[in-house]
Design brief:
Number of domains: 2
Distance between the termini: 14 Å
Radius of gyration: 20 Å
Strand content: 15-25%
Largest sheet: 4 strands, antiparallel
Number of helices: 4
Strand order of the largest sheet: 2-8-3-4
Structural class: alpha+beta
Order of helices and strands: HHEEEEEEHEHEEE
């Protein structure tokens, strides 16, 4: 079946496609099918490459349409299937890159006169997000072109912003556990983004 058909079948007959939260559950899944099936099988993990959202979820922060403001430059392309976070470059354009990169970042403080604060100590995206929430309001969330320009003037570019996305499970749960196949001869490490098919959701098999 296709992934969508498999999802529909599992929801009609059972609960949903398999969700795997840790290595023990992965081992149980392998044991369940061992000796009965030797190919690949769908699980519930998928990557909606159009699911970008801002880290600050307060509805009062946004006016109509402001959640959807983007300033991409020939992006996002999800190169290599691992680009789930966003940075602003030195021209004010946005690019998706791996969240494990190390960059300075911009925090937003709703209570301060100077609402945009650049932190020059480079971290990955998750650590930048945590720092901004611990010390200010959040990583900067950009609502329009005017704010984009102000942040560029404050930061000079090359910084994390609060736009990101997650891979999720069929039941809507965010993923905290992934067990991707390493690189093999004549086969790239996973996920590999379907060899450039970045504009459509990517589904997962084991």
């Amino acid at each position: 079946m296709t992934w969508t058909a498999a999802q529909r079948y599992c929801r009609q007959k059972y609960t949903d496609l398999a969700t795997i939260d840790n290595m023990d559950e992965m081992k149980r899944l392998i044991t369940t099918v061992n000796g009965t099936y030797s190919g690949s099988a769908w699980i519930g993990l998928y990557d909606d490459v159009n699911s970008w959202r801002w880290s600050l979820e307060d509805n009062d922060f946004y006016q109509e349409g402001e959640r959807d403001f983007r300033n991409w430059y020939h992006e996002p392309d999800n190169y290599g299937g691992k680009q789930l976070c966003v940075y602003m470059d030195y021209t004010g354009n946005w690019f998706d890159i791996s969240c494990d990169n190390t960059l300075p970042f911009i925090c937003y403080d709703v209570n301060a006169t100077q609402s945009f604060i650049k932190i020059n100590n480079g971290t990955n995206w998750a650590e930048a997000h945590r720092y901004c929430r611990d010390h200010y309001t959040d990583l900067v969330n950009i609502r329009n072109q005017t704010e984009n320009q102000r942040i560029l003037e404050t930061a000079g570019g090359g910084v994390w912003i609060g736009l990101y996305r997650n891979r999720i499970w069929s039941n809507g749960q965010n993923t905290n556990y992934e067990d991707w196949r390493p690189a093999l001869p004549y086969s790239p490490q996973q996920p590999d983004n379907g060899y450039g098919q970045w504009s459509i959701p990517q589904c997962t098999a084991f």
